[in-house]
Amino acid sequence: MIFEGYRQEVNSFDSKYKQIQLLDILPNQILAFDIYLYLPANDKYVHYIRAHDVLTNDQLQRLKFNKIKELFILKSDLEKYNDYVSSNIRSLLSTEDGKLKKQAVKSAAELIINSVEMLSSDGNIIEWNNNCIELTKTVIDDIVQTDDISVAYDKISDYLSATPTLANHSLIVSSLGVIVAMSLGNSAPRTLTEIAYGGLVHDIGLGSLPAKIAEKYLNREEMSVVEIALLKEHPRKGVNVLQKIIKSRNITDNVLKIVLEHHENVSGHGYPQGLAFDELSYLPKIISIADKVALEMLSIGTGEISLRYIILKIMREQGPKEIFDQKMLRVLLESLSHGRA
Ligand SMILES: [Fe+2]
Ligand SMILES: [Fe+2]
User: How far, in Å, from the CA of 191 to the mean position of ligand 1?
Assistant: First the structure.
């Protein structure tokens, strides 16, 4: 039995293989590359699916049943893999069916966020960036077309997953960011795009940290002093990842600012720079509120609680030691009371 002795501790530094996520492989689609499983008991990679074959629904269920989330490809197949991911994103986002669209947007976010570390050529990088823009456009369109902010919020709670992933959290923050920005009176497409794009990639630096840290952070679990110190590096690491891959070509300064400053706060005790109130930038302040709301939505866990309730909770909890911009929270609350801003 192939799963016997299978553990999740995999050696990602092995030179010949590259780890991918099971979520990235859609069932019943012809694959252009081989897929391997890692067996730690024998420290061996075994062939699981051959190129020109498909991952069947049965196989997918079996992998899920065995709690296997990581698969492997040969590093030499990276270009083929990236092409596969890009074409999946395009076909997912072209879905017209409203119900399917929600699922498609979720899957597209997983594919985009998971593929960031895989970008190996200029062509892939441009494609990745285009995919980010496509996805954020879909998110913005959906929200702009909704007349009432509260209704838009209810819609995005469909994106919530019981077990949060970095991609899922990023998608929620991207959509919430657009809702918050619109409630504050922003309607310029460029601003909304920067907010949606910035929200999508704000935590991309978490992907460069040990997986346990992102998991603990998203689940709001207690962390050791060392883990907290590592966590505080994620904004800078995010900027590094984006600058390296995008070469500043399409990522705007505002997007990079969102990534760098989304954990700064009004009291001046945020990280990584501990900026003072008058040094805080406008768009990162919006994303920091969206980020907080996203984490609250998760811990409440139902998607049944109104945005108004969450904002009131944040305002009450932060008290006089202001973390989030109180004025922004007040305007947001007001717009929720009076429908569309
Ligand atoms: Fe973050
Ligand atoms: Fe976040």
Answer: 20
User: What's the gap in Å between 43 CA and the centre of ligand 2?
Assistant: 35
In the reported structure, the alpha carbon of residue 328 is separated from the centroid of ligand 1 by a whole-number distance in angstroms of 20
Q: In what order do the strands lie in the sheet with 35-39?
A: 17-21, 70-74, 35-39, 44-49
Q: Ligand 2 centroid vs 182 CA: distance in angstroms?
A: 20
Q: What is the mean pLDDT of the chain?
A: 87
109 and 180 housed in the same domain: yes
- CA of 263 relative to ligand 1 center, distance in Å: 6
Kindly report the pTM of this predicted structure. 0.87
Instruction: Using alpha carbons only, give the angle 4, 9, 13 rounded to the nearest 5 degrees.
Output: 120
Instruction: Say how many domains are in the chain.
Output: 2
Note down the domain range covering 55. 1-94
Instruction: Compute the distance between CA of residue 227 and CA of residue 225 in angstroms, rounded to an integer.
Output: 5
Q: Counting ligands in written order, which one lies closest to the CA of residue 291?
A: 2
Give the Cα separation of 314 and 72 in Å (integer): 42
Query: Looking at the structure, do residues 48 and 112 belong to the same domain, yes or no?
Result: no
User: What is residue 248's DSSP assignment?
Assistant: T
DSSP H helices, 44-120, are: 57-65, 78-93, 98-115
**Ligand 1 center–CA 67 separation, angstroms:** 27
Ligand closest to the CA atom of residue 232: 1
pLDDT in tens, 220-229: 899 999 999 9
